[in-house]
Amino acid sequence: MTVISSVIRDGHDVVKHECQLQCGEGSVLPVHLAASVLPQEDQIVICLVVTDLSLQRGQEELRMAKEVAERANVAKDSFLAALSHELRTPLTPALMSLLALEREEGLPEFVRAELAMIRRNIELETRLIDDLLDLTRIANGKLELHTAAVDLHAILARAVEICRPAIDAKQQRLVLHLHAQQTGSVGDAVRLQQVLWNLLRNAVKFTPTGGTINVTSENLDGGMLQFEVRDTGIGFEPEAESKLFQAFEQSGRGITRQFGGLGLGLTISRSIVEAHGGTIYGRSDGPGSGAVFTVTLPLRNGAVSKPVRPAAADGVLESRRGLEILIVEDHMDTRTTLQRLLERRGYKVTAATSAEEALAAAGAAQFDLVISDLGLPDMTGNELMALLRDRHGLLGIAVSGYGMEEDVNRSRDAGFVHHLTKPIQLDRLTELIATTLEKVAVAR
Fold it and tell me: What's the Enzyme Commission number for this chain (predicted)?
């Protein structure tokens, strides 16, 4: 061997070398050779240490593969966040204008019906975008719950209210059998509503026109409440039950082509239910036999908080007069729509298309509040907010298509008091403007 001849010929204490040995069965074994001369009086004794490197190489390959997978996951998350931003941005002016139109008096009923149809589809598109981001949160272990005392029947009622237009459009019959007497729990009302809405939406989607959807609630032993959503829809093969809650699965490509959707709703619903300590499963006797989905949730003590009703727009119009708001938004339709609708609600609004324009405006006039997008052409909205806070003491509301937890945390660190994810609803924005201006008044 080269290492042995080298240690003898050159007189080195130790000679090291990595190579591959050909094994008898034809496989190749990576090894590390270390040869040294042991001092003897009358003979040369060579010590050769052979180390098998296959495990070490395997660990190195595993480490490299893990790094590649982590980089790919980060790239995927970044892509989904950017995609979400690009998809949400054009929905904002559409939804705000639509909601403003629905407030108009004297509209013919057929116009109101068309507006309701447009709103349902905008909200559905928003939900699909949210599902993509929720899947990313779940995969990264970042699905957060904001828990409080809740009434599970009240949450179901809100989910039914959202689905009612779609049920009526297909002339379906919704029957509620609410037998549960104990309905108080502690949980994330928004997330639990998302679960029940997903189940109802699927029942509506997969049940033909004129079909029936039954929703039942009952108390179970062990302090649990069970919801059951049963439909007379297309059903599924019993062997498909194991795939129901896998991402992007819809019991076959034909289902996806015929009914649409991403196949994420049940995956997300399971994660939400399990995070609340509950269970969810589905079953069917076969195609054409309908489907039954069952959710069980633990009951917990806690006073149910009363819903807070937003103040009527006309009642607070006078208090808004003279309040100066700076809007920073590079998307023209969003900027002009937001400015017009806020001015109709009594605010004085100045609009800027870039951070440079916003800084110039803030230097020339005094504003009570800034509402800014985060993706500006010349600097980030967070960088702009930090400058406006430090130079002029302004507070702000972030309005962005980026809505992951890290995005919200970064915007708050920069000085934004609130973070709204597009598409925004004007009533919600108006509420946040009021609470932010209260903080401004206290600070002054």
Answer: 2.7.13.3
Average pLDDT per 10 consecutive residues for the chain, totaling 444 residues: 65 77 80 80 78 81 83 75 77 86 87 84 77 74 83 93 89 95 92 93 93 96 95 89 74 46 78 93 91 94 43 43 86 91 91 96 94 92 94 92 84 92 87 83 58
Statement to judge: residues 29 and 6 lie in one domain: yes
- Please tell me the predicted confidence (pLDDT) of residue 365: 93
Number of domains present in the structure of the chain: 3
Question: Going by C-beta distance under 8 Å and a sequence separation of 6 or more, which residues neighbour residue 329?
Answer: 335, 338, 351, 352, 353, 371, 372, 373, 399
> Which of 298, 331, 353 corresponds to the end of one domain?
298
**The pLDDT value given to residue 316:** 44
Judgement on whether residues 278 and 344 belong to the same structural domain of the protein: no
Angle formed at CA 351 by CA 345 and CA 357, multiple of 5 degrees: 160
Q: What is the pTM of this model?
A: 0.58
- Which phi and psi angles does 240 have, rounded to 5°? -80, -10
- Which secondary structure element, helix H or strand E, spans residue 135, and what is its range? helix 109-139
Closest CA to 400 of 428, 420, 380: 420
C-beta separation of 150 from 184 below 8 A: yes
Looking at residue 23, the DSSP 8-state letter turns out to be: P
Residues 240, 229 contacting (CB under 8 angstroms):
no
Bond from prior residue into 423 cis (ω within 30 degrees of 0): yes
Beta strand pairing call for 28-38 and 14-22: antiparallel
Q: What is the C-alpha separation between 417 and 422, in angstroms, rounded?
A: 16
Q: Residue holding tokens 């992951």? A: 404
pLDDT for position 252: 46
Domain that holds residue 385: 80-142+312-444
* Res 440: pLDDT: 64
Two structure tokens written together for 61: 């390959």
Indicate the length of the chain as a whole number.
Answer: 444
- 307 found inside a domain: no
Structure confidence at residue 314 (pLDDT): 41
Residues 327 and 264 in one domain: no
Residue 318 has what pLDDT? 44
Angle, to 10 degrees, between the axis of helix 381-392 and the axis of helix 405-414? 20
Closest CA to 427 of 310, 339, 348: 310
Task: Return the structure tokens found at 375.
Answer: 């993706």
Three-state DSSP string of 314-381: HHHHHHHCCCEEEEECCCHHHHHHHHHHHHHCCCEEEEECCHHHHHHHHHHCCCCEEEECCECCCCEH
